[in-house]
Amino acid sequence: MQNNNFLRAEWIRSLILVIEAWWKLAWAAVRIRIPFGRQTLVQRAMSTGAMTRPARRVDPIQTVSLVKAVDYSRRFHAKGMYCLEQSLALVWMLRRRGLAATLQIGCRRDGAEFRFHAWVAGWDGRPLESSDIENRFAPFASLSC
Q1: Pairwise CA distance, residues 31 & 72, whole Å
Q2: For an engineered disulfide with 122, which of 22, 36, 54, 58 has Cβ 3.0 to 4.6 Å away?
Q3: Rounded to 5°, angle at Cα 100 from 141 and 30
Q4: What are 104-116's pLDDT values in tens digits?
């Protein structure tokens, strides 16, 4: 019986994370389309500041559950969410919990075109989602606010 209550509590926690991620994705989609304040928004996300709690090292278990919540929420949006919206939502969720995270934006050349990608880096500067990103995209330098 106690195990069943534990599973129910974990399911409720996961559902709350998914709902929070869904709202953060919607907020990111709106915010990056508003022309005024966009530069400040990206600068704050790319810097190490603007956290609601003191920074601490990234907890791998909590990070994985947040990444999964954002990914799961992305699938249930009416609008397709791009990497920038996903990364902003994840940065906001991590920082709200006091976990160090920064937005990284990178570029690579694909023939005559340039491809851009956004991802989230942890306290050590490594990407949280996939380690292959660093090999495919050269990150831009951090911006100071």
Answers
A1: 21
A2: 58
A3: 75
A4: 888 888 889 888 8
The residues, any chain, with a CB within 8 Å of residue 89's CB and separated by 6 or more, are 21, 24, 25, 27, 28, 70, 73
Q: What CA–CA distance (Å, rounded) separates 145 from 138?
A: 21
The two three-digit tokens of residue 64, written as one number: 């994985």
Residue 92 pLDDT:
92
> What CA dihedral angle connects 10, 14, 20 and 24, to 10 degrees?
150
Tokens of 30: 């709106």
pTM for the predicted model, two decimal places: 0.81
Alpha carbon distance 77, 122 (integer Å): 26
